[in-house]
Amino acid sequence: MTQSAHPGTAERPLRAAIVGSGPSGFYAADALISRAGLNVTIDIIDRLPTPYGLVRGGVAPDHQNIKGVIRVYEKVMAHPGVRFFGNIKVGRDIQAADLRACYDAVVFAVGNESDQRMRLPGEDLPGCHSATEFVGWYNGHPDFTHLKFELDVEAAVVIGVGNVAMDVARILARDPHELAGTDMAGYALEELKTVRKLKRIYVVGRRGAAQAAFSPKEIKEIGALKNADLIVGPDEVAGMEGKDPAAEGWDVETKQDIEFLLKKAQEAPAGKPRQIVLRFLRSPVEFLAGPHGRLGAIKLEQNALVDDGKGDLKAQGTGQFETLPVGVAFKAIGYRGVPLPGVPYDVKKGIIPSAEGRVVENLENRKLVPGAYVVGWAKRGPSGLIGTNKGDSIATVEALLNDFAAGKTPPNLAADPRLEALPELLAQRGARWVSFEDWKRIDEEEIRRGKAAGKIREKFINIQEVLKFLDSTR
Ligand SMILES: Cc1cc2nc3c(=O)[nH]c(=O)nc-3n(C[C@H](O)[C@H](O)[C@H](O)COP(=O)(O)OP(=O)(O)OC[C@H]3O[C@@H](n4cnc5c(N)ncnc54)[C@H](O)[C@@H]3O)c2cc1C
């Protein structure tokens, strides 16, 4: 293959690496292969041996219909120019500079894999966890399968009122038998079945009901649970009755949320085994130890909403406090990115800094890093549903292709654009990669194991076990 100044032809296809195989990575790949007249070959690299990012490791097991989106990604993988290199971590097995040498363009689609800390006293007490850990654990994500959770407590608290908080509250509240046929990790299901004492799950939001980030669909699902009553105390929606949504600046979703919460506030609890209790306008200020040195309670400060001077409302402490006895806490206050060696990182925002999807050294100098692009949560931070990533990835790919068309990308940036370059490099480094054909075998085995257990799928929960399975069936 010869080098030319215009990659994208049949003679010299554009070589793109996409780091991360979650929704944003697949939508970026799709946008590249769908571009008429462009010849492109794409390597999708993921640190896990399994593709699909948070669709596999984040989306709740009782939201199986959402996972159907994988069919779109499978179509991308069916394109002859697209390869998968699983079990390859950029920053460990291969460096960003190595990719730079093998590809014309590198698109970072690494998501936001860490979480925000609250920096509160007692945050490191046993029993105080991030939602990331709990979600990863019940979904069988290999990073979290070793964790242990003490769930057999009378009360739990979920901090945050976004959709992740709703997932955590719902999974805790459900009768585990409702989850038995899903792809929830087997050990998590067994652990949930042992929970006897849990009666109450508090869900705490810093601001008011009108500022809650949950979607109407998620809160309605909580309100319809078989095993739990949703409790909305009159104080939580005080003064909202009869408010004009337009005058309040509520969007359609907020209006629906408030209507639903007002309705729920009127209803008497049906006496279901568990309760999900919403508490708005409260900020945790301390996690308190119980008699065994584990989390025993959470101290909350009541807030009032005040103008933040930027056209929004912020929560301000009123100096009034309350303490809720809770045996376990889950912080669902947002994810943040993990810095990749050799790739710019904005510490404040926890993302890869960019301008229209082009990676920049930092947000102040906005100096472009040639050939580097970013999509998805790594670009925007942890907001947006799976579908949100589609338009976002299309926009970044547009910028990428414009750069090539306009000759803005230095020619011959990729010193070794051969298809063999990455496999050779990985072999030299002794890094073992999992191909898409390997994944198909893993997928079939998981479905087979699931069928035997009366479930949709029983996931491999350990990378070594995956590799051993592949070796034993090769
Ligand atoms: C708990 C939870 C539940 C959600 N539920 C829903 C839902 O029900 N419906 C919905 O529409 N949206 C849901 N979302 C949102 C949705 O999952 C995100 O919008 C989407 O996954 C973001 O896509 P992404 O590709 O940017 O990141 P991710 O999906 O996180 O993908 C990032 C990928 O990068 C890989 N990676 C990271 N670092 C490296 C590295 N160094 N080298 C190689 N690979 C690396 C990871 O392994 C991962 O596969 C949920 C999110 C969470 C957290």
What topology emerges from the helices and strands here?
Elements: E1 14-19, H1 23-33, E2 40-45, H2 53-57, H3 70-77, E3 82-85, H4 96-102, E4 105-108, E5 114-115, E6 128-130, H5 131-138, E7 155-159, H6 163-173, H7 186-193, E8 200-204, H8 216-223, E9 228-232, H9 245-248, H10 252-266, E10 274-279, E11 282-289, E12 295-307, E13 313-325, E14 328-331, E15 335-336, E16 354-355, E17 358-360, E18 368-374, H11 377-380, H12 388-405, H13 421-429, H14 436-452, H15 463-473
Parallel strand pairs: 1-2, 1-4, 2-3, 4-18, 6-14, 7-8, 7-14, 8-10, 9-10
Antiparallel strand pairs: 5-15, 11-12, 12-13, 16-17, 17-18
Flavin-adenine dinucleotide is lined by residues 19-25, 45-48, 53-54, 58-59, 63, 66, 89-91, 109-111, 113, 135, 164, 167, 340, 376-378, 384-386, 389.
Task: Describe, in plain words, how this protein is organized in 3D.
By secondary structure, this protein is an alpha/beta fold. The chain has two domains: 14-113 and 336-434, NAD(P)-binding Rossmann-like Domain (Rossmann fold, 3-Layer(aba) Sandwich), CATH 3.40.50; 117-333, FAD/NAD(P)-binding domain (3-Layer(bba) Sandwich), CATH 3.50.50. The protein is built from 15 helices and 18 strands. Strands 3-2-1-4-18-17-16 form a seven-stranded mixed beta sheet, with helices on both faces. A six-stranded parallel beta sheet has the order 6-14-7-8-10-9. Helix 8 runs parallel beside helix 10 (252-266). The protein is globular and about 70 Å long. The mean pLDDT is 95. Flavin-adenine dinucleotide binds at residues 19-25, 45-48, 53-54, 58-59, 63, 66, 89-91, 109-111, 113, 135, 164, 167, 340, 376-378, 384-386, 389.
